[in-house]
Structure formats: structure tokens, C-alpha cells
Design goal:
The chain is an alpha/beta fold. The protein is built from 6 helices and 5 strands; from the N terminus they run E-H-H-E-H-H-E-H-H-E-E. Helix content is 53%, strand content 12%. Helix 5 crosses helix 6 (96-107).
Length: 136
């Protein structure tokens, strides 16, 4: 199993105890959280009623040995451009933040744990929500 990149909705499902998401994360050799997902999570926390609790839980998650927060790089931007252009040619645009999430996943050779079906339109990106989606 390759590393798993975590989408915002998958982190929320993990926090709710979704059995499928928990199983994938338990089996993942490493977990990648890109800065875009981190920003989405922190933004949601800031707009909610439990910001300090949610920040504390996220910090605990991020500080586990298998989790790594990854920044955007020039390589991420190049992959963003390639994914953007390919989806535009297909007539299948996706939200901008999701382009960054996909580019980061591709950059790090990670499969993406996400409930967003539009990620399926990205060539070379493995995406799913269940353990069997990620086992070769």
C-alpha cells in the first residue's frame, strides 16, 4: 500500500469514527496532509464553535509518527498546471483547492482518501474511501 493523502472530508469522517476511513488510515504506511487540507480544516474550525478542541485534536493527529504535513512546492505547482490543463481539455473542471490537493498527492506518490467523486477524473490519481480501493 502506498502512502495515503488525506482530504478534508476524510479527516472529518475519521473524527466521526467512520469504519472505512479508520481502516484505511490504520493500514497506511504513512499519511500525508497537504497545506491546502490543513488550511481548509483550520478555516472550518475558526468558523465553528469548537475551535480550540478541534485544533487540539488535529495537533495530536499531526504529531503522530506516520503523519506528515507537506508544503506546496514548485513541483506541486507544476503538477497543478498539468492536472488543470488535462481536466480543462476533458471539460471536467474541479474546485481549485482540490486541484492543489490532487497535485500534492501526485507529487508525493500518494493515493487520496476522499469522498469527492470528481477526483476520479484525474489521470494517475488513485482515490477511494475503503481499504479495498487502495490494495493492489
Amino acid at each position: 500500500m502506498r502512502p495515503i493523502a488525506l482530504d478534508t472530508n476524510a479527516y472529518a469522517a475519521f473524527k466521526r469514527g467512520d469504519a472505512d476511513i479508520v481502516a484505511v488510515l490504520q493500514h497506511a504506511p504513512s499519511i500525508i496532509v497537504c497545506v491546502t487540507v490543513l488550511g481548509e480544516l483550520l478555516g472550518g474550525f475558526a468558523a465553528g464553535q469548537r475551535e480550540s478542541v478541534n485544533r487540539g485534536e488535529l495537533a495530536q493527529f499531526i504529531n503522530t509518527p506516520r503523519v506528515k504535513v507537506v508544503p506546496g512546492t514548485a513541483a506541486t505547482a507544476d503538477l497543478y498546471a498539468l492536472v488543470y490543463a488535462a481536466l480543462r481539455r476533458k471539460g471536467q473542471p474541479i474546485p481549485t483547492n482540490d486541484l492543489w490537493i490532487a497535485a500534492s498527492s501526485l507529487e508525493h506518490g500518494a493515493a487520496l482518501l476522499s469522498y469527492d467523486a470528481h477526483f476520479q477524473t484525474i489521470d494517475g490519481l488513485r482515490v477511494g474511501t475503503r481499504l479495498e480501493d487502495f490494495i493492489p
